[in-house]
């Protein structure tokens, strides 16, 4: 009987270990397709494979979000200030905020969202959306990005999206490096340390 328990326990352990290994390997090999192009807060095109000189911290939001999204953005503003003091923001790392609600979050709406947080309209923190006149194709491109990073979201029909609560650090080639909790669980120091560690 003990032998059966031992075999079952070993099988369970191996199953869990295999599952963990699968997710680690999957995350480590994930890379945002370099040909995906969205538009930024100014209506200009942004292609993920164009700039291969910087790390990217990627945040997914929608501007009607009542809690997690704005809390994360505010914490990223504070993180940005610390990275500027270190002299690496804009040189070694940039921030990318991508809306999961491109129909409502037009470039104009994203610009207002930025201003609400005191974020300057410059090239080192871009806010991305899709072209409203071609929204179905843009949503497919957005899905490619979220699927790559295993970020899940759904609109239950009331305009209040249910979504995964992670931000993502990717390398110069848009490959997954690490993920961090959003909202109140976004630990600025942990994210800062990981970014500096990757840079140095």
Automatic annotation (TrEMBL):
Which residues participate in Cu cation binding? 65, 69, 163
Q: What is this protein called?
A: SCO family protein
Family classification: Belongs to the SCO1/2 family.
Lineage, opening ranks: Bacteria, Bacillati, Bacillota, Bacilli, Bacillales
Q: Which domain of life is it from?
A: Bacteria
The record's listing under Gene3D superfamilies reads: Glutaredoxin (3.40.30.10)
Disulfide bonding pattern of the chain: 65-69
Q: Does the keyword Metal-binding apply?
A: yes
Q: Does the keyword Repressor apply?
A: no
Recorded hits in SUPFAM superfamilies, A to Z, give: Thioredoxin-like
Q: Which PANTHER family match?
A: ELECTRON TRANSPORT PROTIN SCO1/SENC FAMILY MEMBER (PTHR12151), LINALOOL DEHYDRATASE_ISOMERASE DOMAIN-CONTAINING PROTEIN (PTHR12151:SF25)
PROSITE patterns in alphabetical order: THIOREDOXIN_2 (PS51352)
Molecular function GO terms recorded: metal ion binding
Identify the keywords attached in UniProt to this record, alphabetized: Copper, Disulfide bond, Metal-binding
List the InterPro entries hit by this protein, alphabetically. SCO1/SenC, Thioredoxin-like_sf, Thioredoxin_domain
Thioredoxin domain mapped to chain residues: 26-200
């Amino acid at each position: 009987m003990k032998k059966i328990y031992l075999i079952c326990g070993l099988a369970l352990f191996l199953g869990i270990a295999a599952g963990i290994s699968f997710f680690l390997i999957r995350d480590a090999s994930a890379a945002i397709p370099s040909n995906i192009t969205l538009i930024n807060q100014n209506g200009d095109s942004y292609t993920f494979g164009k700039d291969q000189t910087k790390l990217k911290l990627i945040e997914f939001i929608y501007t009607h979000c009542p809690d997690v999204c704005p809390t994360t953005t505010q914490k990223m503003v504070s993180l940005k200030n610390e990275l500027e003091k270190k002299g690496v923001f804009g040189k070694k790392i940039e921030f990318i905020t991508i809306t999961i609600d491109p129909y409502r979050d037009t470039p104009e709406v994203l610009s207002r969202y930025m201003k609400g947080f005191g974020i300057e309209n410059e090239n080192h923190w871009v806010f991305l959306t899709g072209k409203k006149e071609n929204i179905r194709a843009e949503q497919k491109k957005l899905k490619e990005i979220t699927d790559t990073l295993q970020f899940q979201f759904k609109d239950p029909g009331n305009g209040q999206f249910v979504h995964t609560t992670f931000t993502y650090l990717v390398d110069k080639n848009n490959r997954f490096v690490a993920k961090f909790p959003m909202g109140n669980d976004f630990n600025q120091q942990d994210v800062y340390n990981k970014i500096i560690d990757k840079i140095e």
